[in-house]
Protein backbone atom coordinates (compact mmCIF):
# COMPACT_ATOMS: atom_id res chain seq x y z
CA UNK A 1 0.00 0.00 0.00
CA UNK A 2 1.37 3.39 -0.99
CA UNK A 3 0.47 7.02 -1.69
CA UNK A 4 -0.69 7.18 -5.32
CA UNK A 5 -0.02 10.80 -6.32
CA UNK A 6 1.01 14.23 -5.16
CA UNK A 7 3.87 15.45 -2.98
CA UNK A 8 4.29 12.06 -1.22
CA UNK A 9 3.74 9.88 -4.31
CA UNK A 10 5.20 6.40 -3.87
CA UNK A 11 5.52 6.63 -0.06
CA UNK A 12 4.84 3.19 1.43
CA UNK A 13 2.19 3.08 4.15
CA UNK A 14 2.19 0.77 7.16
CA UNK A 15 -0.82 -1.37 8.03
CA UNK A 16 -1.41 -3.36 11.21
CA UNK A 17 -1.27 -7.14 11.05
CA UNK A 18 -4.52 -9.08 11.02
CA UNK A 19 -7.91 -8.40 9.49
CA UNK A 20 -9.31 -5.82 11.94
CA UNK A 21 -8.23 -3.01 9.59
CA UNK A 22 -9.26 -3.15 5.93
CA UNK A 23 -7.23 -0.46 4.11
CA UNK A 24 -8.69 0.92 0.89
CA UNK A 25 -6.71 -0.72 -1.93
CA UNK A 26 -4.40 1.44 -4.05
CA UNK A 27 -6.48 0.88 -7.20
CA UNK A 28 -9.70 1.86 -5.42
CA UNK A 29 -8.08 5.03 -4.02
CA UNK A 30 -6.79 5.85 -7.51
CA UNK A 31 -10.28 5.41 -8.98
CA UNK A 32 -11.82 7.52 -6.20
CA UNK A 33 -9.41 10.42 -6.59
CA UNK A 34 -9.77 10.26 -10.38
CA UNK A 35 -13.52 10.72 -9.88
CA UNK A 36 -13.01 13.58 -7.44
CA UNK A 37 -10.69 15.37 -9.83
CA UNK A 38 -12.40 14.71 -13.17
CA UNK A 39 -16.14 14.47 -12.55
CA UNK A 40 -18.29 17.45 -13.60
CA UNK A 41 -19.07 18.15 -9.92
CA UNK A 42 -15.42 17.72 -8.86
CA UNK A 43 -12.12 19.34 -9.70
CA UNK A 44 -8.87 20.31 -8.01
CA UNK A 45 -10.61 22.75 -5.66
CA UNK A 46 -12.57 19.93 -4.03
CA UNK A 47 -9.22 18.69 -2.63
CA UNK A 48 -6.59 21.42 -2.78
CA UNK A 49 -6.67 23.75 0.20
CA UNK A 50 -9.64 21.90 1.75
CA UNK A 51 -9.99 20.65 5.33
CA UNK A 52 -10.55 16.87 5.29
CA UNK A 53 -12.03 14.42 7.79
CA UNK A 54 -11.08 10.73 7.63
CA UNK A 55 -13.52 8.83 9.85
CA UNK A 56 -12.87 5.15 10.64
CA UNK A 57 -9.38 6.10 9.42
CA UNK A 58 -7.52 2.83 9.89
CA UNK A 59 -4.08 3.43 8.33
CA UNK A 60 -5.15 6.91 7.23
CA UNK A 61 -4.65 6.09 3.55
CA UNK A 62 -7.58 8.21 2.32
CA UNK A 63 -6.71 11.29 4.35
CA UNK A 64 -3.00 10.95 3.61
CA UNK A 65 -3.74 10.70 -0.11
CA UNK A 66 -5.79 13.91 0.11
CA UNK A 67 -2.97 15.66 2.00
CA UNK A 68 -0.44 14.50 -0.58
CA UNK A 69 -2.68 16.00 -3.27
CA UNK A 70 -2.82 19.39 -1.60
CA UNK A 71 -5.51 19.27 1.10
CA UNK A 72 -4.85 21.90 3.79
CA UNK A 73 -5.45 19.77 6.89
CA UNK A 74 -6.87 16.37 7.84
CA UNK A 75 -8.55 15.20 11.02
CA UNK A 76 -8.44 11.44 11.55
CA UNK A 77 -10.76 9.44 13.85
CA UNK A 78 -9.78 5.89 14.83
CA UNK A 79 -10.42 3.64 17.85
CA UNK A 80 -8.35 0.50 17.12
CA UNK A 81 -4.96 0.64 18.90
CA UNK A 82 -2.91 -1.19 16.22
CA UNK A 83 -4.52 0.97 13.50
CA UNK A 84 -3.74 4.11 15.53
CA UNK A 85 -0.10 3.01 15.71
CA UNK A 86 0.05 2.51 11.95
CA UNK A 87 -1.75 5.82 11.33
CA UNK A 88 0.68 7.75 13.53
CA UNK A 89 3.66 6.01 11.92
CA UNK A 90 2.29 6.89 8.47
CA UNK A 91 1.84 10.55 9.42
CA UNK A 92 5.41 10.65 10.73
CA UNK A 93 6.81 8.80 7.70
CA UNK A 94 5.02 11.16 5.32
CA UNK A 95 6.12 14.15 7.43
CA UNK A 96 2.52 15.35 7.72
CA UNK A 97 2.03 15.55 11.49
CA UNK A 98 1.89 19.35 11.35
CA UNK A 99 -1.10 19.33 8.96
CA UNK A 100 -3.06 16.60 10.71
CA UNK A 101 -4.81 15.79 13.96
CA UNK A 102 -5.59 12.31 15.25
CA UNK A 103 -8.50 11.66 17.59
CA UNK A 104 -8.15 8.30 19.34
CA UNK A 105 -11.89 8.04 19.65
CA UNK A 106 -15.06 7.20 17.82
CA UNK A 107 -16.34 9.25 14.93
CA UNK A 108 -19.78 8.30 16.30
CA UNK A 109 -19.07 10.54 19.34
CA UNK A 110 -16.95 13.41 18.00
CA UNK A 111 -15.99 16.50 19.96
CA UNK A 112 -17.37 19.76 18.56
CA UNK A 113 -15.47 20.88 15.47
CA UNK A 114 -13.28 23.96 15.49
CA UNK A 115 -13.45 24.05 11.69
CA UNK A 116 -15.94 22.26 9.40
CA UNK A 117 -14.51 20.02 6.69
CA UNK A 118 -15.14 20.28 2.95
CA UNK A 119 -14.24 16.65 2.20
CA UNK A 120 -15.32 13.73 4.40
CA UNK A 121 -14.21 10.11 4.02
CA UNK A 122 -16.07 7.33 5.84
CA UNK A 123 -14.83 3.75 5.47
CA UNK A 124 -16.53 1.91 8.37
CA UNK A 125 -16.71 -1.82 9.00
CA UNK A 126 -19.15 -3.23 6.46
CA UNK A 127 -22.72 -4.25 7.25
CA UNK A 128 -23.26 -2.37 10.53
CA UNK A 129 -25.17 0.70 9.33
CA UNK A 130 -22.42 3.00 10.58
CA UNK A 131 -22.32 5.65 7.79
CA UNK A 132 -25.70 7.16 8.73
CA UNK A 133 -24.82 7.16 12.44
CA UNK A 134 -21.44 8.78 11.79
CA UNK A 135 -22.87 11.46 9.49
CA UNK A 136 -25.58 12.36 12.01
CA UNK A 137 -23.00 12.68 14.81
CA UNK A 138 -20.58 14.67 12.65
CA UNK A 139 -23.35 17.01 11.50
CA UNK A 140 -24.49 17.68 15.08
CA UNK A 141 -20.89 18.44 16.09
CA UNK A 142 -20.31 20.85 13.18
CA UNK A 143 -17.74 18.79 11.28
CA UNK A 144 -19.45 18.87 7.85
CA UNK A 145 -19.30 22.15 5.91
CA UNK A 146 -22.26 23.16 3.71
CA UNK A 147 -21.62 21.70 0.26
CA UNK A 148 -18.95 19.27 1.52
CA UNK A 149 -18.23 16.18 -0.53
CA UNK A 150 -18.93 13.00 1.43
CA UNK A 151 -17.28 9.78 0.25
CA UNK A 152 -18.56 6.54 1.76
CA UNK A 153 -17.09 3.08 1.25
CA UNK A 154 -19.45 0.22 2.06
CA UNK A 155 -19.94 -3.39 1.13
CA UNK A 156 -21.16 -3.79 -2.43
CA UNK A 157 -24.73 -4.72 -1.43
CA UNK A 158 -25.18 -2.30 1.49
CA UNK A 159 -27.81 0.40 1.30
CA UNK A 160 -26.27 3.85 1.57
CA UNK A 161 -28.62 6.77 1.94
CA UNK A 162 -27.42 10.16 3.13
CA UNK A 163 -29.99 12.54 4.59
CA UNK A 164 -29.92 16.16 3.38
CA UNK A 165 -27.38 15.45 0.65
CA UNK A 166 -27.31 15.22 -3.13
CA UNK A 167 -26.20 11.90 -4.63
CA UNK A 168 -23.36 12.46 -7.12
CA UNK A 169 -21.79 9.13 -8.10
CA UNK A 170 -21.31 5.49 -7.23
CA UNK A 171 -18.77 2.88 -8.29
CA UNK A 172 -18.32 -0.78 -7.32
CA UNK A 173 -14.82 -2.21 -6.91
CA UNK A 174 -14.76 -5.89 -5.99
CA UNK A 175 -16.54 -6.32 -2.64
CA UNK A 176 -16.54 -2.54 -2.04
CA UNK A 177 -18.82 0.23 -3.25
CA UNK A 178 -17.95 3.92 -3.19
CA UNK A 179 -20.73 6.49 -3.10
CA UNK A 180 -20.21 10.24 -3.25
CA UNK A 181 -22.63 12.84 -1.99
CA UNK A 182 -22.72 16.63 -1.63
CA UNK A 183 -23.92 17.87 1.78
CA UNK A 184 -26.88 20.21 1.76
CA UNK A 185 -26.72 23.85 2.70
CA UNK A 186 -25.08 25.31 -0.37
CA UNK A 187 -21.85 24.81 -2.23
CA UNK A 188 -18.23 25.35 -1.30
UniProtKB/TrEMBL annotation:
Keywords: Methyltransferase, Transferase. Residues 1-22 are annotated as: Disordered. SUPFAM superfamilies: S-adenosyl-L-methionine-dependent methyltransferases. It is an enzyme of class 2 (transferase). InterPro entries: RNA_MeTrfase_RsmD, SAM-dependent_MTases_sf. Its EC number is 2.1.1.171. The keyword Transit peptide does not apply. One of its GO terms (molecular function) is 16S rRNA (guanine(966)-N(2))-methyltransferase activity. The keyword Ribosomal protein does not apply. It holds the Pfam family Cons_hypoth95. It comes from the Bacteria. This is 16S rRNA (Guanine(966)-N(2))-methyltransferase RsmD. It comes from Acetobacter musti.
Amino acid sequence: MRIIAGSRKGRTLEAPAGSATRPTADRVRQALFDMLLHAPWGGRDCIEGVRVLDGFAGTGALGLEALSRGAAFCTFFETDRPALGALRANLAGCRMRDIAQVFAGSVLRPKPAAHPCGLVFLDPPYGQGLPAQALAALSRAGWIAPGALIVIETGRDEDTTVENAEFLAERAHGAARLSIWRAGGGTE
